[in-house]
Amino acid sequence: MDLAHSLRLIAPEETLSIASLVLLLVAAWSGDKASRLISILAVAVLVGCMALVAPALCYGLSGPDVAAFGGQYRADAFAAFAKLLIYGSSAAALIIAPAFFDRLGQMRAEYPVLILLAALGMGMMASAGDLLTLYIGLELNSLASYVLAALLRNDGRSAESGLKYFVLGALASGILLFGVSLVYGFTGTTSFAGINAALSGNLAAGALFGIVFVLAGLAFKIAAVPFHMWTPDVYEGAPTPVTTFFATASKASALALLMRVSLEAFGSQADAWRQIVIFAAIASIVVGALGAIGQSNIKRLMAYSSINNVGFVLIGLAVATPQGAAAMLTYLVIYIAMSLGGFVAILMLKDEDGRPLEAIADLSGLSRTRPGLALALAMIMFSLAGIPPLFGFWGKFVVFQAAVQAGFVALAAIGIAASVIGAFYYIKIVKIMYFDEPVDTVRGRSDWAHTALLVITAVFMSPLGYLLTKWLDGLAQTAASVLFLAA
Predict the structure, then answer these.
(1) Where is the NADH:quinone oxidoreductase/Mrp antiporter transmembrane domain (predicted)?
(2) What is the mean pLDDT of the chain?
């Protein structure tokens, strides 16, 4: 009965596993000519998995009834919130891919299968209740991601990004494993609940080192300073649909895992790791903002933007309160929508022959040649900068509000001041599109799927997004409260 209950709880992972194997066989038998059919089926599988996890969030499920395999896996409301973002972002990465790869003649049947396998690992990361589950999910996601980054075998940049991601990812995994071994050695358990209980007394020096190494390994996955060095090169070199996947689904899963580890496993020693998170938050905001200023490639600029936005999210984690965790989730939803819209707009920047344009100079005077695209991209840039009345402002507002309510006024003030630096390069993009002389290089026709996604994200970023604040904040608070039940 206990095994049957556990198997019911892992229904999304079972669905993804079986679907991945079946679609892999279809890919092996039919070859690349079946890539579109496999992509459509993969999107259907991801939508089905979203339907499977949604009830857990709607009903705010938590406690022992949602623990599977002795607590190693948790199908609670927090995991459901993260999985909805992961599966939705993964589906978007599949929808936008065919138009990009078909022009290059490199739409591979393996692409949707790799996305499904990566999503499977990400779901396990979000549901991890044990250090072993954490590592298995992390490695499953990472191995698929390394291949995705190097998917364009004839492109030197893609191969370089895959190699850099692999080497630095292996280093981060080693750091994480060393931290895991220290935590296990000083607590005697790999269970998050057991670690929380074992750390509730005096903190041994060895256990503190373990916490530091675990957080350092996870900081690589979210691209937080000082473990951000891979991000610009991988974002620029990887195929743009894959970069979109890294900026949305991968970011959501890594941040969800960091929240679960920090607040569930190490929650009783928040004072021990808070200084580390505060440093990473401020450094990420500043480095992300300053690093983006001199960029001439828009994908590299978006990479530094992601580093900058991770810093704002980490302010919510440093607070270590239910309000801070809920603010992180709210910010994450808005950020994923902004990133998705931004990279879809980048995919729509094509010349007459359909070749992608990535130079910021190619945006000159875009408002006069492609006014609709320029307007949507301007809204996304202003929203990323957190300028009201666009919806991106709300994400920063709830994070800073949580920090002030918890007494971290200085941290909030530094974050607000540093966000002004970041606004410079976002506004610079808008200035180039609206005030520079047109170069008229963006002439390629856009795919209907790209146009539809861009319109949806632009509407979400508009002031109309504020109509969703009560509903979104309610779901975020429901999900975040789960992490504090053991505290």
Answers:
(1) 128-422
(2) 89
